[in-house]
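Revision sheet: structure tokens.
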Amino acid sequence: MSVTIDIAGLPRERITFAPSPLAELCMALHALSQPGHHPRLTSWTTATSASLDPCLADRLLEAEFMWRSSFSDIFMPFAGIPGEAGRPSATLAEELDVMDRLDDERFVGAALEHCWLALYNEGGGPSPLKNPAARAKALEVAAARGPRQLDFSVRLLDDPAGVRVWLRRLLEDCDEAFFAETWKRLEPGQSADARHKAELLRRKGLPAALKDVSTALSVDEGLTTITADKMVHGTTTATDPRIGGGLVFVPTSFGWPHLLVLHAPDWRPVVHYPLDTPEPASGPGSVELLQRRMEALAHPMRMMLCRSLARAPYTTSELATVYGITAPEVSRHLAVLKRAGLMHTRRQGRYAQHELDLAAVARIGSDFIEGILR
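Predicted:
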């Protein structure tokens, strides 16, 4: 599973790194609504939530599906304006101005993105502003989230202009309440990181720059396709003439463990990458490796073998005797564990002794959380 970005023929100067205050505000709102995703931000989320004006906190609940369960593309409007530079603005006010210039269909489709995530790669289907069936589906999904979300979605479909004004005022109030001070603290570090990665791209090339962005990103030898290792399928292109070619990398201080790839049709692709991503002790783990490990441990006999292998080294014949199965059966189970990187073997004279890699097993919990949230 992965998201791929076609960059065949894309000039290097069309790959840019830049912070986005509006995208970071989205991540800050997500952290406030899903503090369990971001244990490293506990002190910030706790203090900020406690200081929020109750009226503002109540208003945030109305539209929180735009940042709680998905990350609406509406917070990266620079990627949705055809024929322009396609990069973030320096200030939140400037980015809100860009958001105001999205046409109604693009604005509403991005705001209600959560209603058709399954159709994201196909353009999200017909517009709910024009298609009764699409409208009914959007409202059905919104109703499942709660009455406030349903009311907001009805208002959005009936009065897009009014909701635009309401949403901008909400985000401006968030800026005044907590984000302006937070962004003042975060922006220098994000700008420095963007400059560093742009220089790395210039001096050492795209593979080195991608590796520095995230171990979940890679590019093929021909430098034609970037792959993001995520538990989702998706494709996009950075050379679509309808929107204008380009690829933007946007850092986030609030994002880990999320690595986001905007890959909506008719939008420029954007990679929203977390700063200060902790590196796994045993090297970068892929979603495929995580899947192999989960499958390896799902078998009851392999779980029993792990119980012994976690306590001491064992030979194949010893394990066969303990569990009453044949040595070839033990070998097959051990091969699965070895392919999953969960055990290692060492020679002791003429015997091969097998032992569980406790560090690798201990990482499965955090790898699982990072993998499904990436």
